[in-house]
Each structure stands twice: as structure tokens, then as C-alpha cells.
Amino acid sequence: MFSEKINKNELSQVASEFKSLLVKYSDSYIEAKNILSRASSLINKAINRDIDAPYRRGFLPEEFWESGALFEVDDLAEKCSQFSLLLKGAKSIEAVVEGVRKIEKQAEIDEREFRAKHT
């Protein structure tokens, strides 16, 4: 799911969409405006394909944490998550989605097997 290289094309696209959503929500949420102000340099580097190595910590401002003001702004929170994953070196969003599907499928199989052995 992850690589030592940045998927510059997908990161650029997601960063552009993330920035647009931050701008859109800046009038309604001061937190979106603040993130845009604080992170504009990083977001612009991503848009311009100027990030070469993964940021192992990713990017998840506290405004998107469960108790944060932007947690329930679904489209913005999703785009922030995608931006963070790609910034960490995700091969692609589709690769992450497929990886999660495989994990969930294996967990279902493991649970069925466990129940079968213990009933």
C-alpha cells in the first residue's frame, strides 16, 4: 500500500481538491481558513509536484480529530485523509482502499474460523 516514493500526480490532484474545499469552507468555518493559512505552503508544494519523499507523519490537523470542528465535514475530512495518506507515501488511494478491503475480508474469515472452533 505504501512506497518510498510519492505519487506526485495523484498527490497534486488531491492537494488541489483539498485546497479548493478549504477555500469553500473558509467562510463557514474559521478552522478551515486557519488550516489553509497554516498549510498553504505544503499544499502548494504538493500541487506543484515539489514533494519528493514521504512525510511519515502525514498531515492530520487536530481540527479533523473526532472532537475537532471539521471532523463531520465529510468531503473536507475525506480529502484531508486522502492528502495525508498520499503524503505518507501511499501508492494510490485505490491501493489503500483495496488493502483495507483485503484486511476486512481476512478479518471476516478469521472470525468465522474462530467461531467455528469455539462453538
Structural class: mainly alpha
Secondary structure tally: strands:
0
- What is the mean predicted local confidence, pLDDT? 92
Shape: globular
What is the N-to-C order of secondary-structure elements (H for helix, E for strand)?
HHHH
Q: Calculate Rg over CA atoms.
A: 17 Å
Task: Tell me about the largest β-sheet.
Answer: none
Query: How many helices in DSSP terms?
Result: 4
Specify the helix fraction band: 55-70%
List keywords for this structure.
single chain, 119 residues, mainly alpha, globular
Structure overview:
With 119 residues, the chain is mainly alpha-helical. The protein is built from 4 helices and no strands. α1 (8-26) packs antiparallel against α2 (30-47) and α1 packs antiparallel against α3. It is globular, with a radius of gyration of 17 Å. The relative contact order is 0.18. The model has no long low-confidence stretch (mean pLDDT 92).
Summary of the model, kept short:
With 119 residues, the chain is mainly alpha-helical. The protein is built from four helices and no strands.
Could you give the topology of this structure?
Blueprint: H1 8-26, H2 30-47, H3 74-88, H4 93-117
